Amino acid sequence: MNATFTNVEGDADLLARLVDCWASLFGPRVIAYRKAQGFTDEPAIAVVVQRMIRSDRSGVMFTVDPATGRRDRMLVEGAWGLGEVVVGGQVEPDTYTFERPAEGEGLVRLLDARIGTKRERIVRGPDGKEIREDVPPALRGARVLDDATALAVAELGLRIEKHYGSPQDIEWAVEDGVLHIVQSRPITTLGDEPGKVLVSGLGASPGKASGTVRVLRSIADGSALRDGDV
Q1: pLDDT > 80? residue 47
Q2: Rounded to the nearest 10 degrees, how much is the dihedral formed by the CA atoms of 76, 81, 85, 90?
Q3: What does the pLDDT look like over 51-77, one tens digit per residue?
Q4: Is there a smaller number of Cβ atoms within 10 Å at the N or the C end of the chain?
Q5: DSSP letters along the chain, please?
């Protein structure tokens, strides 16, 4: 929920972003999240400073399927450049689905690779600051991860899950062919009872809602929405 800043360079810029991280504790989204979770303690934050990975490709990994709760499946999503475009839902990423091995038996197995349309990416510009640019047409429909790299990401995810003792939501990045893990945290959405799947697709935003369902086939259809529609 709190702010993250990338490609920060120099002491002055670092100190300014440090204050911005502290201030993000009191943003509307974070306050709403704390209220929804029932947090009443005085908020506090420790700011983690990490070496910047100059990602040529990056993404997220869930060591179990967070949508269905299936413990025999794991997902890896990836796009070009920094992972912010994946985490923030700014592009349609590649999605790699794996079958997890039974306890102590064999390796993960790649079941499906769905290639997304990755139209933009965030990279480091000549001045060291990040820039957002269009992905070259030849790369938009190209796989971010070949089979071997995708399997390496998944295998590392299982090792991380074993280390922490619970299913993990992991952010990964590849720089010059070297795989890096930049964050790992427990998956927090596995407590819900699974229900019957009525429709599937890419999520537009986090959270749950109820109301009259309306299918928008174009942006213009949005003008017909009323309060209570989802």
Answers
A1: yes
A2: -110
A3: 998 899 999 999 999 888 888 999 999
A4: C
A5: ------S--SHHHHHHHHHHHHHGGGSHHHHHHHHHHT--SPP--PPP--PPP--SEEEEEESS-TTT--TTEEEEEEEES-THHHHTT-S--EEEEEEPPPTTSS--EEEEEEPP---EEEEE-TTSSEEEEEPPHHHHTS-SS-HHHHHHHHHHHHHHHHHHTS-EEEEEEEETTEEEEEEEEE-----SPP---------SSSS---SB----SSGGGGGG--TTB-
Q: Are 25 and 139 in contact (CB under 8 A)?
A: no
Q: Residue 117 corresponds to which tokens in the numbers above?
A: 């349309």
Amino acid occupying residue 101:
P
CA distance 167 to 187: 6
User: Nearest-CA neighbor of 94 among 105, 83, 109?
Assistant: 83
Q: For 185-229, write each residue's pLDDT tens digit.
A: 999 777 655 567 777 766 666 566 777 777 777 777 767 666 656
How many Å apart are CA 200 and CA 24, to the nearest integer? Answer: 33
**In the Cβ-directed half-sphere of 126, how many Cα atoms lie within 13 Å?**
0
Nearest to 95 by CA among 77, 74, 81, 72: 77
Q: Are 168 and 66 in contact (CB under 8 A)?
A: no
What is the identity of the amino acid at 142?
A
